[in-house]
Design brief:
Blueprint: H1 15-34, H2 43-54, H3 61-77, E1 84-89, E2 97-101, E3 104-113, E4 119-120, H4 126-130, H5 145-156, E5 161-170, E6 177-186, E7 190-200, E8 213-226, E9 231-239, E10 250-257, E11 270-282, E12 299-312, E13 317-331, E14 343-344, E15 350-351, E16 364-377, E17 380-382, E18 385-402, E19 408-420, E20 435-447, E21 455-457, E22 472-474, E23 476-488, E24 491-501, H6 513-516, E25 522-532, E26 535-542, E27 547-554
Parallel strand pairs: 3-6
Antiparallel strand pairs: 1-2, 3-4, 5-6, 7-8, 8-9, 9-10, 10-11, 11-12, 12-13, 13-16, 14-15, 16-18, 17-18, 18-19, 19-20, 20-23, 21-22, 23-24, 24-25, 25-26, 26-27
GO cellular component, one term: chloroplast outer membrane
Main location: plastid
InterPro entries: Bac_surfAg_D15, D15-like, POTRA1_3_Toc75, POTRA2_Toc75
Length: about 550
C-alpha cells in the first residue's frame, strides 16, 4: 500500500475542527487499509512479529525498528528486493499496522542500445522478447530478483543480443510501483567467418615434404533475426584440402523458422528447421580388430536434405519429428566408390570379399525415412557440476523408398542420471558436489540394415579404452557405465567402469563385419581420470586385453 502522510494542523483551526479533521483522516486511513492488496508475508513470520510485540508492555521506537528489520529481512531473503516497510499506523490503538510497499510491477519497458549505449530503434519484435518473460515479472506481480535472473537467462537463450540488463526502477507515476526496465544490445544480423588449418600428410618413407602440407579450412556465414522474428539462415563449406577441395568438400545450409504457430500463440512453441547437407565420415564398421593389421578405410559420404519440426513442451522437454532424404556413397582411400570392405592377408595382399558396404551392393544407396526424437533433460549446473536426469529416445522409420526399397525401424534409448551424493547446494564459493553417474544406452534395428548404419561398439563415447568400432558392428547393442566423481580442489577426479555388448546380433548384419575383421563383439574397461578444464585426462584399462593406456579427451563423456 502507499505511504501515509503526517497529520499537519492549521494554526487557525479550532479544537472541533481539529477533531473533525482527525476523524476524516482516520476514515481515509481505514479506507486505504481496506483497499490495500493482501500482504504476501506468511503466517509464521506474522506470528514471529506478534511474539516480539507480546514481550513488550508498550510500543517503542526500538521495537518498531526490530519489527521493520525482521519483516524486510524476510522479503529480501525471498528475492523481493524492492520491498520496504514505510510506516506504522494505528499506534494510538490496541493494534499496530505495518505498512509495506512490496514492489508491485506496473509495467515493463524495453530499451535497445547501440555499442556506445545510445538509445536506438531495435530490429527485434518486442513480442519475441515478451514471450521469454516469466509470469512473475509481468505487471500485477511483485518484483522478484529470481524472476529477473530467469528472464535474463531466457532472453539470452535467444542468441540475439550481446548484452542484456534487467533492472527495476521506481514508477514515478504511481507511488510504490516498480517499472522493469530491460536494456538490450543486438548482435549484428549478418556475419561471415573464415577459419584455416594445416595438415601434414606423410610422403615417401613416411617423411613429410613441402608438397604434402595441405591447407584446409571452413567458410561460414549467418543471417540471423530475419524480419526481427528470430529466423535465421546459416551455411558453411569445409575442406581439409583447399588445393583440391573436390576430394572431401562438405557443406551445410540450414534455415530455422521459430514460432511456427505465430509469435502471439503461446499455447504451442514449435520450430521448423530445414537443411541440405553433404558430409563425409570415416566408417567405424569397416575397421580391424585388435589382432589384425590395419584395414583399408571406408569413407561414408552423405548428401541430402532434412526437414523437421521441434515442439517444446517445457524448457526441459521437446519432441522433434521430420523427414530425411539422402544419398549415401561409400568410398575407399583413393576416393573411388567401393562395394565391399577389405582386410590385409598374411601374404601382403588384400581380401576384397568383405561385407557389402551398401544395401544395393553398388556402393551407392538412396533412401527416405521418418525421424522422431523425444528428449527430456532436467540437468542443471550445481557450482560447475552437472546434476539431474537426461532421457533421449530416437526412432528412424524407413518408408520403403529408395535402393532395394529399404524398410526398417531403427530405435535408440539413452538414459543418464547424475546423482548429487552429498546434496550440495548452489552458491557462490561453495564446493563442487560429489556425483554418481549412471548411464545406459540401447540401440536396435528391425528390417533392412545397410552396413554403414550398423551400430558400432567401442570408442570414447561408447566403451572407453577402445578405438571407434574396435569391439564390433551389430544390429543391437547395449552399453552400461557408471562413474564416481569426487571433488578435489575445484575440480573432479573420478573412477569409472564401462561395458558394451552386441547381444549376439553381429551375425545379423549382412557379411558379419564383426567376424570378418576379427572383433569379439563385447568388451569392458575401467579406469580413473581427472578433469583439467575442458580436457579429461584418463588412465583406462582394456579388460579384454588387460593393458592400460593414458588418454586425453576434450569435452564430456556423457
Amino acid at each position: 500500500m502507499s505511504q501515509s502522510g503526517q497529520v499537519d494542523f492549521d494554526q487557525d483551526m479550532t479544537e472541533r475542527e481539529k477533531m473533525d479533521y482527525l476523524r476524516k483522516q482516520e476514515r481515509d486511513y481505514q479506507q486505504r487499509v481496506r483497499g490495500a492488496n493482501p500482504c504476501i508475508l506468511p503466517e509464521n513470520v506474522r506470528g514471529e512479529v506478534l511474539g516480539m510485540m507480546k514481550k513488550q508492555e508498550k510500543v517503542s521506537a526500538r521495537m518498531l525498528q526490530k519489527i521493520r528489520d525482521h519483516v524486510q529481512k524476510w522479503y529480501h531473503n525471498e528475492g523481493f528486493v524492492c520491498a520496504q516497510v514505510v510506516n506504522f499506523g494505528n499506534l494510538n490503538t490496541n493494534e499496530v499496522v505495518c505498512e509495506v510497499v512490496e514492489g508491485d510491477i506496473t509495467k515493463v519497458e524495453y530499451q535497445f542500445q547501440d555499442k556506445l549505449g545510445n538509445i536506438v530503434e531495435g530490429n527485434t519484435q518486442l513480442a519475441i522478447i515478451d514471450r521469454e518473460l516469466p509470469q512473475q515479472l509481468r505487471p500485477g506481480h511483485i518484483f522478484n530478483i529470481g524472476a529477473g535472473k530467469q528472464a535474463l537467462k531466457n532472453i539470452n537463450s535467444l542468441a540475439l543480443f550481446s548484452n542484456i540488463e534487467v533492472n527495476p526502477r521506481p514508477d514515478e507515476t504511481k507511488e510504490g510501483g516498480i517499472v522493469v526496465e530491460i536494456k538490450l544490445k543486438e548482435l549484428e544480423p549478418k556475419s561471415a567467418e573464415v577459419s584455416t588449418e594445416w595438415s601434414i600428410v606423410p610422403g615417401r618413407e613416411g617423411r613429410p615434404t613441402l608438397a604434402s602440407i595441405q591447407p584446409g579450412g571452413t567458410v561460414s556465414f549467418e543471417h540471423r533475426n530475419i524480419y526481427g522474428l528470430n529466423r535465421s539462415i546459416v551455411g558453411s563449406v569445409t575442406s581439409s584440402n583447399l588445393l583440391n577441395p573436390q576430394d572431401d568438400l562438405s557443406f551445410k545450409l540450414e534455415y530455422v523458422h521459430p514460432y511456427l504457430d505465430g509469435v502471439d500463440d503461446r499455447s504451442k512453441n514449435r520450430t521448423f528447421k530445414t537443411s541440405c547437407f553433404n558430409t563425409r565420415k570415416l566408417s567405424p564398421v569397416f575397421v580391424a580388430g585388435p589382432n589384425m593389421d590395419e584395414a583399408p578405410p571406408v569413407w561414408i559420404d552423405r548428401v541430402g536434405f532434412k526437414a523437421n519440426i521441434t515442439e517444446s513442451f517445457t524448457r526441459q522437454s521437446k519432441f522433434t519429428y521430420g523427414l530425411v532424404v539422402e544419398e549415401i556413397t561409400t568410398r575407399d582411400e583413393t576416393n573411388t566408390v567401393c562395394t565391399h570392405g577389405s582386410r590385409a592377408m598374411p601374404s601382403g595382399g588384400l581380401n576384397m570379399d568383405g561385407p557389402p558396404t551398401t544395401l544395393s551392393g553398388t556402393g551407392v544407396d538412396r533412401m527416405a525415412f521418418l525421424q522422431a526424437n523425444i528428449t527430456r533433460d532436467n540437468t542443471e549446473f550445481v557450482n560447475g557440476a552437472i546434476v539431474g536426469d537426461r532421457y533421449i529416445f530416437q526412432l528412424d522409420q524407413g518408408l520403403g523408398i529408395g535402393s532395394k526399397n529399404p524398410f526398417f525401424n531403427r530405435h535408440q534409448l539413452t538414459l543418464t542420471k547424475f546423482i548429487n551424493l552429498n546434496k550440495q547446494e548452489k552458491g557462490v564459493g561453495k564446493p563442487l558436489p560429489a556425483v554418481l553417474v549412471l548411464h545406459g544406452h540401447y540401440a536396435g534395428c528391425v528390417g533392412d540394415l545397410p552396413s554403414y548404419d550398423a551400430f558400432a561398439l567401442g570408442g570414447p563415447y561408447s566403451v572407453r579404452g577402445f578405438s571407434n568400432g574396435e569391439l564390433g558392428a551389430s544390429r543391437n547393442i547395449l552399453e552400461v557405465a557408471t562413474e564416481l566423481r569426487v571433488p578435489v580442489r575445484n575440480t573432479h577426479v573420478y573412477a569409472f567402469v564401462e561395458h558394451g555388448t552386441d547381444l549376439g546380433s553381429s551375425k545379423d548384419v549382412k557379411g558379419n563385419p564383426t567376424e570378418f575383421f576379427r572383433r569379439v563383439g563385447h568388451g569392458s574397461s575401467y579406469g580413473v581420470g581427472v578433469k583439467l578444464g575442458l580436457v579429461r585426462g584418463e588412465y583406462i584399462v582394456d579388460h579384454n586385453a588387460g593393458t592400460g593406456t593414458i588418454f586425453f579427451r576434450f569435452g564430456e563423456r556423457f
